[in-house]
Amino acid sequence: MPTTLTAFADVTTSDSALRRFLHGLPGVDAVGLEARAASLGTRSIKTTAKAYAIDLAISMIDLTTLEGADTPGKVRSLSAKAVNPDPTDRTTPMTAAVCVYPDMVATAKAALNGADVKVASVATAFPAGRAALPVKLADTRDAVAAGADEIDMVIDRGAFLAGRYLETYELIKAVKEACVRPDGTAARLKVIFETGELSTYDNIRRASWIGMLAGADFIKTSTGKVGVNATPANTLLMLEAVRDFKAQTGIQIGVKPAGGIRTTKDAIKFLVLVNETAGEDWLTNEWFRFGASSLLNDLLMQRQKLSTGRYSGPDYVTVD
Length: 320
Description:
There is one protein chain. By secondary structure, the protein is α/β, with parallel strands linked by helices. The protein has helices at 15-23, 30-40, 47-59, 72-83, 105-112, 133-145, 157-161, 165-178, 201-213, 232-249, 264-277, 295-308; strands at residues 61-64, 97-100, 118-123, 150-154, 188-192, 218-220, 254-256, 290-292. Strands 7-6-5-4-3-2-1-8 form an eight-stranded parallel β-sheet. Helix 9 links the parallel strand 5 and strand 6 (218-220). The radius of gyration is 19 Å and the shape is globular.
């Protein structure tokens, strides 16, 4: 099996070549896609399997606060919750990461104090992405210099929707290069498409391929700041894309649905999508994440119910 992008070298040599490739991808059967996503969402997960799924989902959460009113105290509190989500049960897994704005990266890093929880930072003028390229790159470099382990960037949806595909590709490549530290190590890059603004499933498939060809480590549905965020159907489509990309290149890319995933039932539906579409190789926080804040509390309440037989309610988990 090939393990490079050599087969796609000519695809990104010009805007016209990239356009031909992207518009040559198979069209998405919207009815079939949504029907398959709905069908997989009906799978029933019980007892031991449910307990496993809850712990797995907790370990995949990027615990997120991205508000203008964020304070160092809130970020420290969120970091403590990421390390120890349920103080009454130390067997509860840590979350995968804490996700914050660039100016809060150092605060989160210090609060985590070496714990096995990543610090993710949004960048590139999140959430709108409306800034000049030098500003976007400076935003990224500042976050990496402050200690970010992961960068969540946004594409320029205006450029993409106007058909400027090579410009979108080159932006991602430039941000990928800005993720490299002076010692040669690099922050992992998650590329956010804002699927709710891309209008069609065909556009989501094309954006997925642009992100993967440009070197994304993860492709991500949404910022969580628009009306339509992660859905089973758009996540299924992106899982199909990373599965097909690995089959053709040998390179594995992660997927991160974000926004609107609030309940344990929702999270388990997404895990079923992962298992049935991309496979077990993606059932780890190395390759699948949930961008969420309120989801963790519901997972903790359901976990307590499985453990004690009683539903504890929201007063028994910490407020974010």
